[in-house]
Design goal:
The chain is mainly beta. It has a single domain, classed as Jelly Rolls (Sandwich), CATH 2.60.120.380. It is 10% helix and 50% strand. It contains one helix and ten strands; from the N terminus they run αββββββββββ. It is globular, with a radius of gyration of 18 Å. Keywords: Lipoprotein. InterPro entries: Motility-assoc_lipoprot_GldH.
Length: 153
């Protein structure tokens, strides 16, 4: 009985500390990200007054052969207007050490995409991401995700 009540107390504490303004959507690519594979994410904007941070979550392992990751991102508004960005994120220090956090071989790194972004209109926004490295099949990237959080004033 003591274990059950301790577990329930721990769950209540964890849930009460979570940020209700944060959502994360992660897509698995199984360490074989094909250059033609688009990862698609839907964001619903209900509030145009509060600023949000849009952050990419990248999980890589030791099979990843590079120190950086180039992405092509299409950001589509509810009116079907598309803005394309080419991004370059650094995953490792010059000495080869991964900059991400995590135990074991997999490291997770968060990269800023849009900070203090106010959605111009309510509705559904679409983000599609493709890898822009020079390999048809990119090894070592396990997951890619999009995290939306309330921007701090």
């Amino acid at each position: 009985m003591h274990k059950v009540s301790s577990f329930l107390l721990l769950m209540i504490v964890c849930l009460s500390c979570s940020d209700k303004g944060t959502t994360t959507d992660i897509k698995n690519v199984n360490s074989k990200w094909n250059k033609n594979q688009k990862l698609a994410f839907k964001l619903t904007a209900d509030d145009t007054e509060k600023a949000k941070n849009i952050i990419f979550v990248i999980r890589n392992n030791n099979d990843y052969p590079y120190s950086n990751l180039r992405l092509i991102v299409n950001f589509e508004s509810p009116k079907k207007e598309i803005k394309t960005d080419t991004l370059n994120y650094i995953l490792a220090k010059p000495n080869g050490e991964w900059i991400g956090t995590g135990f074991g071989e997999t490291k997770e790194t968060l990269f800023q995409y849009k900070l203090n972004y106010k959605f111009p209109e309510k509705g559904v926004y679409n983000i599609s991401v493709t890898q822009a490295m020079r390999k048809d099949i990119l090894p070592g990237i396990e997951d890619l995700g999009v995290k939306i959080e309330s921007a701090k004033p």
